[in-house]
Structure formats: structure tokens, C-alpha cells
Amino acid sequence: MNSSLTSSRSSLLRPSVLLPLLVLALLAAVPFVAAATGQPFYVAFFARIIIYAIAATALNLALGYGGLVSLGHALFLGLGAYSVALPAFYEIDSGWVHLLVCILSCGLVGLITGAISLRTSGIAFIMITLAFAQMGYFVFVSLKQYGGDDGTTINLTSHFFGLDLGKPYVVYAVALAQLVLLTWWMARLRSSPFGMVLRGARQNARRINAVGFPSRSYLLCAYVLSAIVCGIAGMLLANLNAFASPSTLSWVTSGDLIVMVVLGGIGSIFGPLLGTLAFLGLEELLKGVTEHWMALFGPIIVLVALLGKAGIIGVLQKLEARRQPNDADDHAAPMAAQPNLPPLGERR
Length: 348
Fold this sequence. Notes:
By secondary structure, this protein is mainly alpha-helical. It has helices at 2-12, 15-37, 41-65, 74-89, 95-117, 123-142, 168-190, 193-210, 215-241, 251-264, 271-289, 293-307, 311-323, 328-332, and strands at 152-153, 159-160, 163-164, 243-244. The strands form two sheets. It has a two-stranded antiparallel ribbon with strand order 1-4. Strands 2-3 form a two-stranded antiparallel sheet. The longest helix is centred in the middle third of the chain and has 27 residues, at 215-241. One of its GO terms (cellular component) is plasma membrane.
């Protein structure tokens, strides 16, 4: 018992675990610091980071665990946003109604699009998911009564138990609580039988099928779960901005989510959080330096990706291995970033 307690303590002291926990603690302190300094901007900015970290974690379930390179997850983020906007247009402010619409729409669309997309692999899978997202984008652009391409303002935000998610401090607390619970769930899922089958299917789906596990069914389940969680992130984003726009469904948003996951560490537990913080934080810093920030942002992302192919988590684990060379093999397994996805066209 003492050895297991010592092992758990040492694992918490590793940089790849300690740094994300420190980030979560600092995020919890942001509202108090913002209130003390009279800077509500920080609440809105870090709430956006937390919400996109939820969406990136959702994508990590499909991409990192299942090896499904989806360029269509912006579709679910947009569906979540419009799950608030459309009922609010008809003066429905019940958060339970918004949540029900979000879960049903994202779950159903995720089931249909996932079942079709999973009949393919490699580049075909990527292009089909992208096509579905673009179809959703043009559907909402065509809805002129709801603002069309200009989007729609949300006058009635979601209410749960008397709490209004339209208030920045409330949506911040709810989003942070969800991110913590989601991260804990992803950690448990990773070592569960379901998670092991997913990771096995990413490496060799035929072998998983041969031992009696229908890999496609497991991957479809992961895809639908990922869609629903991503939709809930879109719902939180709509409440934060009090606005919903078809631009949320753009393929650019899907690309950003993939970059966040890759930057943090594909398949890792805390990678999406660190990747989102680095991505959006760097973007905000460069905006304050020059109006041509995009010209600097792209090369920096490429450089970071080249220097650390396993993402930020991978870099931290390399530092751990150098500090404790005897335990390097033990440390690589629990939260390895899994950057080596199967070659395109060889997943099945």
C-alpha cells in the first residue's frame, strides 16, 4: 500500500501531470483575480479557452483514441451554438430545452455522418467529414430568418436552476467544472476496456475484429460521444458570446481544433488543454504585437510541431526521461502522446 501511495505521489510530481494541474488551478483563480483587478476581459478570454479546450478534448476522443482524423467537428460546435440560438429566437430560455436539443441534434447527426464516414478510411474519411461540415455551414447560411450569413444575436440565454449562462462568471464556472470532469472521464476511459479497444482499433482494426470486438461499432460510438461533447462546448460558446454564426461551422474551425490537439499531444489526457491554451494564448499575444500576426503565427505553429512531434506533453515527458533515465520506460506508458497515427488508408 505504501509503495502504491508513493507511486501515485511521484506520478503527480511529474511535469506532464503537474503542469496541467497547475494550469487548472490558475484557471480556477482567474475570476477572483479579474474581480479584484476590475478586468472582466480576462474572464471572457479564459472562458473561451476553456470552452475550446472542451471541444478539443472531444475531438481527441475520436482523433487521439480512435485515430479518426475528422475535419468536420465544427459541424457539432455549430449545432450546439444554434441549439441555444434557435429556441431563444422563439423566446425559450430553458437551458434544459437547449441541452436536449443539443444532445439530440448532435447525437443524431453524429450517428448518421459517422456511420457513412466510417465506411471509408484515410483521405476519403477526412474529405467526407469536411463535406458534411460544409453542408451544415451552407444550410445555416441559407436560413435568412435566423440571420443567415450574418448570424443571430441571442437575447435569451440558457437558464439552469435559476442560473443564467449568459453571465460571464456563471458560464466560466460551469465550463471549468465540465472541463475538469471531462478530463477525469477521459483519463478513466483511456485505461478502460472501451478505451483499449479504441486504441487497438487505431493501430490495427483487423486484429481487433479477429479477437471478437467490432471495431467499427466502437469507433462509431466514440465518434457520436465526441460529437455530443463538442456540441455542448458550442452551447457554452453561444451563451458566452450571446451570438451564433455559421462561421462556427467553417472548416477553419475544424482545422483549429486539430491543431490544438496536435499541439498539446494527440491521444494524451491533458494535451488538448495545453494545446488550446498555447494556441489561443499565442494568438492573443501576437495580435497585441502586430496587425500582421497571422504571418508570424503560422511559422511558429509549424516550428513547435517540428520540435515536438508528440506535442507539449511529449516535450514534458522527454524532460522527465532525462531527469530520471531509469524510469523513462515507465513514464512513457501512462500518458504517452501517441503521435504515430496509422498511415492513411491502413486503418482498416
